[in-house]
Structures are given as structure tokens and as C-alpha cells.
Amino acid sequence: MKKLICASLLAILMVSNGCGLMSGVKADETLRTMDVIFDYPNKTNDQLYILANTWFVEYFNSDESIIEFQDKENGKIAGKYTFQHGNDIYYYMIKQTISIDIKNEKLKLRFLNPVYKTIRSGEGPTHDYKPLLSQKSIDVARLEWTKASKSLDTYIKNARD
User: pTM (2 decimals)?
Assistant: First the structure.
């Protein structure tokens, strides 16, 4: 009987730790999008476009991270990027849309529509992406978005003309 109780408790603990990222308190819908605006008065729009495009290619190196749309004339780059997050039991591929708009020596970076799929667990991978909705999972995504934003800013500021 003790073994059964211990095994049950262990199973509950493992499931709650593994699923904890994707379940729990639902995040406010406004947190599923993040905009960051940078001002680069010493860079032309053409320079910013080239640097942002190059940064995208260098920074996002997953096979699922792709540029889907580019329009140099209108200063627009858009695509998808992915990152992995997990613990010893569950791993998730988190994918979101990223867009960059360049106008008047400013760059607007936008992250939106985060979704996830399980890529490894005791039950095997899932193939369909599901919306990222829990507060914990949105916090993970926003932390990654902040990291990416800082990387872009540093990349542009350190670029040689």
C-alpha cells in the first residue's frame, strides 16, 4: 500500500512539474504581444533594414525560424521564430510571429501570436501547435522576447557604418 501511495504521489508530482508551464492561471490577452521601439538617429532607414535583416538571419538559427516577408521599400520584415524551453521531463517548442518595421530612423520590433508544441515527453511529441495562454508560459516567452530585443539593439548599435 505504501508503495502504491508513493508511486501515485511521484506521478502527480512529475505531471504537475511537467505541465506546469503550459497550464495554470491564464495570462491577460494583452501580454501575448510585445512591442519594442528603438530610435537610431545616426542610421538611415536603408542601414537599419540591412542590419535588422542580417540580425534576423544570425540570431534565429532554428530550422523553423524563417523570414516570410521582406519589403525594403516600406521597411518591413516579418517571419516566425522558435525557441525551446523545458525541464527534465517536458520540452516545448515555442513559436511566434516577429515583425520589424523601419521608418524615420526608428525601428519597431513586435512579437505576437505565441504557440507551442511538446517536442519530448513521456507521451511522445505532439505535432500541432496550441496557443500559449498560461501566465507562466507567457512569462517565459516575454523573457525570450526581451532577450531578443536587447540582442537586436546591441547588434545595431555595434554595427559599423
Answer: 0.80
